[in-house]
Specification:
mainly alpha
Length: 272
């Protein structure tokens, strides 16, 4: 009976991690191509404010995270749409949003004396505590993200490779960027349970960076990034189960190991 229960929660954890990794891979490829790592980090910092507001309002924390992440995405998307030429550079504005929302989230947490919750589980993930209802959220949200990404893949890729030419050809570049940001916000909310809000950007960037030197086409990189993400989840859970290490950070460490292996293989290929 005990072994069955252990197997059940490990299987749920693996299913949850792979659900996020499959959609995070191709999205992470665009983060790498478009150099949007700082935007991803901003979303992950803002997610703490979403958690605090969700707990304060008594709603599912994932809805709170998604709401705050969408607001951040809309703010940045509207700024690009208006082609705002104010004195603030994009990275400065992202820094203000990231650290301002993180600090505000911590202040709101201080008012949650009557609400019992594990802050570390939200910060670093609690994949081993994934329930069946969490899996419905993850797979439903993941399927929605996958469908949107499939729909916008070609025009978004075109806009990423050559934005000016895409504008001339009538591609709605700014709309695509906004949609991509909103989808990214959704994935941040989904990945919160897996690696936590502080490490969620790593699940987007590291598998994609690992896949890049081994890929010859954008589609191949997207698929390989998903595979690397799933391998990272599997390796991280194995390490967590065998060495009693925290699951979220273990998944990121496994991704880091894969990245170094991929770079080594790429180096050997170049020298051959």
């Amino acid at each position: 009976m005990g072994m069955t229960m252990v197997d059940d929660f490990l299987v749920r954890a693996l299913l949850a991690g792979c659900a996020v990794a499959v959609v995070a891979g191709p999205l992470g490829a665009f983060v790498v191509w478009r150099r949007m790592a700082y935007f991803g980090a901003t979303l992950s910092h803002a997610a703490l404010l979403g958690i605090a507001l969700g707990l304060l309002a008594g709603i599912h924390v994932m809805l709170g995270v998604m709401a705050v992440s969408i607001v951040v995405a809309l703010l940045m998307g509207v700024r690009h749409w208006r082609q705002n030429n104010d004195m603030l550079s994009e990275d400065t504005l992202l820094g203000i949003l990231a650290h301002g929302s993180l600090a505000l989230g911590l202040v709101v947490v201080a008012f949650l004396d009557d609400v019992r919750f594990d802050l570390n589980a939200y910060l670093f993930g609690d994949i081993l505590a994934v329930t069946s209802s969490d899996l419905y959220w993850l797979y439903g949200g993941g399927a929605g993200v996958a469908l949107i990404l499939i729909y916008i893949w070609r025009p978004l890729l075109s806009a990423t490779v050559h934005e000016e030419l895409s504008i001339v050809e009538g591609v709605p570049v700014h709309t695509l960027r906004l949609v991509y940001m909103l989808v990214l916000a959704g994935v941040v909310a989904l990945a919160m349970k897996v690696v936590g809000v502080l490490l969620v950007t790593s699940l987007l960037i590291i598998p994609a960076a690992a896949a890049r030197p081994l890929s010859s086409t954008p589609e191949q990189m997207g698929v390989l990034a998903s595979v690397c993400g799933c391998l990272s989840v599997t390796g991280g859970l194995w390490g967590s189960a065998n060495y009693d290490t925290p699951s979220g950070p273990s998944i990121v460490v496994a991704a880091l190991v894969l990245f170094m292996v991929a770079r080594l293989i790429a180096g050997i290929r170049r020298s051959a």
